[in-house]
Design brief:
Bound molecules: acetoacetyl-coenzyme A
Strand content: 15-25%
Shape: globular
Distance between the termini: 28 Å
Length: about 260
């Protein structure tokens, strides 16, 4: 499949999607977001892929929604534009998704990274929700996901005051999993995603589902849900394989079912 605004490649069991609109610092227009989600849904359906990595360039993961595309929009134009709906498609991806962020992750770019399951960053990464400077607020999850990730005090500092977080601050506040050197961040991110991609596929999928249930369910409902997913895994060949491999001191050979 050929795309206009993204590049895709497979590195072992990692499906890599790279945003590729360098002249606009990977500003997210509707066409790019649709391509991104088409590619990710294709990887989600591909049994040879265990994990996805979404990345941009060294200078910009993505500098936000395309301001030029929406500058003259009316509310009804925005309502009829399926742009923000693409984030809902991302939240339905069942395999783990890692965002590898270098440079700017601003506005919709930061919201895209946060809609992934984990974020790894280069030392140069900058996270921000600077929509206030445009006379708007975040619209693709920034007020919700940022507050859940870093807490109200830091989130409001970013959203009301346009504060950027450095990679180190983002890690300290719980937004980012790992910070890697600028020179090696992409290989390091691929290694990080590669380790996840090699794990038992059904368990990975249900583990992601169980963790995300925290954001949707009261505690007892979440605990009950987790227990059912846990029991269900005892129907998989991979549970038998994983436990047999442990008992016999050998490496597990996952079947994917
Ligand atoms: N939309 C459209 N074009 C953008 C863009 C964006 N979000 N961000 C950068 N660009 C374009 C610039 O217009 C410029 O294009 P031209 O060369 O054609 O003029 C090119 O990318 C390079 O940008 P700069 O010259 O500004 O580069 P810089 O290094 O001086 O500054 C920057 C980099 C600080 C990221 C600056 O570009 C910037 O502030 N960008 C906007 C960030 C922003 O406000 N993002 C939020 C968007 S709204 C949103 O995302 C809503 C939502 O929640 C869904």
């Amino acid at each position: 499949m050929t795309y206009e605004y993204i590049l895709t490649r497979e590195e072992g069991r990692v499906g890599v999607v790279q945003l590729n609109r360098p002249k606009a610092l990977n500003a997210l227009n509707k066409a790019l977001m649709v391509e991104l989600m088409d590619a990710m849904e294709a990887y989600d359906a591909n049994a040879d892929i265990g994990c996805m990595l979404v990345t941009g360039s060294a200078k910009a993961f993505a500098a936000g929604a395309d301001i030029k595309e929406m500058a003259n929009a009316t509310p009804v134009d925005m309502l009829n534009n399926p742009f923000i709906d693409q984030w809902d498609r991302l939240s339905k991806i069942s395999k783990p998704v890692v965002a590898a962020v270098s440079g700017y992750a601003l506005g919709g770019g930061c919201e895209l990274a946060m809609a992934c399951d984990m974020i790894v960053a280069s030392e140069s990464a900058k996270f921000g929700q600077p929509e206030i400077n445009l006379g708007i607020i975040p619209g693709a999850g920034g007020t919700q996901r940022m507050t859940l990730a870093v807490g109200k005090a830091v989130a409001l500092d970013m959203i009301l005051n346009g504060r950027f977080l450095s990679a180190q601050e983002a890690q300290q506040f719980g937004l980012v999993n790992r910070v890697y050197p600028n020179e090696s961040y992409l290989e390091d991110a691929l290694a990080f995603a590669g380790e996840i991609a090699e794990r038992a596929p059904v368990a990975l999928r249900l583990a992601k589902e169980a963790v995300n249930a925290v954001f949707e369910m009261p505690l007892q409902a979440g605990l009950n849900h987790e227990r059912k997913l846990f029991y269900m895994l005892f129907s998989t060949a991979d549970q038998k394989e994983g436990m047999d491999a442990f008992v016999n001191k050998r490496k597990a050979d996952w079947k994917g079912h």
